[in-house]
Design goal:
The protein is an all-alpha fold. About 15% of the residues are buried. Helices cover about 55% and strands about 0% of the residues. It has one domain.
Length: about 130
């Protein structure tokens, strides 16, 4: 939603001030975007479902770890628990997203990038970089 032209220039552009991924940049967002993307989506589900406090804290650690991992700028499969997920693309795809500012929106949701075709720029980029 925040990559739609109207929302991007008003809210999300601040997050893209960094052209390379830095873990702390995950939280660098316009207050409205922070409220919607970070607070409501992170806290909403566990609160609506009435999750136990230990489940909630475990989920919060998982969620923050995943977003910092995606914005870390480093692909360290051995140190990332997310690398066991078959569709995980890791920081490389998200680095492309920040450096080129097109498509490749998610690391854990890259399935939707594939379905919607928003990963085409990233796939072309990877093909060009591969040695022949």
């Amino acid at each position: 939603m925040f990559h739609h032209r109207w929302f991007y220039k008003r809210f999300h552009k601040q997050h893209h001030a960094f052209k390379t991924s830095i873990a702390l940049n995950t939280e660098y967002a316009h207050p409205i975007e922070h409220l919607v993307s970070n607070v409501i989506t992170t806290f909403g589900g566990p609160l609506i479902l009435g999750s136990h406090v230990l489940v909630f804290w475990s989920y919060l650690v998982f969620r923050l770890w995943e977003t910092f991992d995606a914005h870390s700028g480093y692909t360290l499969p051995v140190l990332s628990p997310f690398s066991v997920v078959p569709w995980w693309t890791g920081p490389r795809m998200h680095d492309f997203h920040h450096s080129h500012n097109i498509g490749a929106y998610g690391t854990m949701t890259c399935f939707w990038d594939w379905v919607c075709g928003t990963d085409k720029g990233y796939r072309d980029y990877v093909k060009k970089r591969k040695p022949h």
